[in-house]
Amino acid sequence: xxxxxxxxxxxxxxxxxxxxxxxxxxxxxxxxxxxxxxxxxxxxxxxxxxxxxxxxxxxxxxxxxxxxxxxxxxxxxxxxxxxxxxxxxxxxxxxxxxxxxxxxxxxxxxxxxxxxxxxxxxxxxxxxxxxxxxxxxxxxxxxxxxxxxxxxxxxxxxxxxxxxxxxxxxxxxxxxxxxxxxxxxxxxxxxxxxxxxxxxxxxxxxxxxxxxxxxxxxxxxx
Length: 222
Hints:
With 222 residues, the protein is of the alpha/beta class. Helix content is 38%, strand content 15%. The protein has a four-stranded mixed sheet with strand order 2-3-1-4. A hairpin with a 5-residue loop joins β2 (51-52) and β3 (58-61). The protein is globular, with a radius of gyration of 17 Å.
C-alpha cells in the first residue's frame, strides 16, 4: 500500500506481546513511550510517538515490549477511539493488528472503531470455531461484526480441506497466501518479502495484491 504512495500507519495492538517492530526493522520503543503514551495523555504529539520505517510512506505505532501488562488494564473504548480517530486524520490508511483476546479492550475496541476487518486462518479444523467464538463474543457486547466476514488464509499447503465450510459460516475467502518459507524467514530479519525479494512467488504476490485492492478501492476510508 505504501508503495502506491499512500501514507500508511501500522498499529500493533498486541499490547502484551508486540512484535511488528521486529518485522519492520525498527528499534523497540522505550518503556512508557509509543502507544501507551498516546493513550495516557491526549496532549501528546502523535508525530513524536509514531516511528518511521525504512520504507517510504510506511510508519509504525507500537507499544513498548518493556511495558508492564497491568499498565494496559485501565484503558477504555474512549481511549482507543481517540487514538484511532487521530490516526485516521493523519494517514491515508491505518492498519491495525488486532490481538485475538476477546475480553481485552484493545481487541474489541479495534473491532468497534475500524471500517473493515479481516480474520486470518489456516487449513485447520479449529479455524472456523475460533473465528465464530471471537465474533460471537463481540456481538454479545454490542459490537457489529458484519464488517469481519473476510477471511485471509495463510500458509496454505493445499491440503484436503473443506473450504466450503467458510461460505456456510458466512465468511468470504478473499485471499489465500501459500506457505513461502523465504517470506517467513525474511520477515524475521525485518525485511518485507514483497519489497525485497527479487524472486517472488507469483501466487503469493497476486493474493497480496487482491488484499491491497480491497483496502485501497474501498469507500470506507482508513
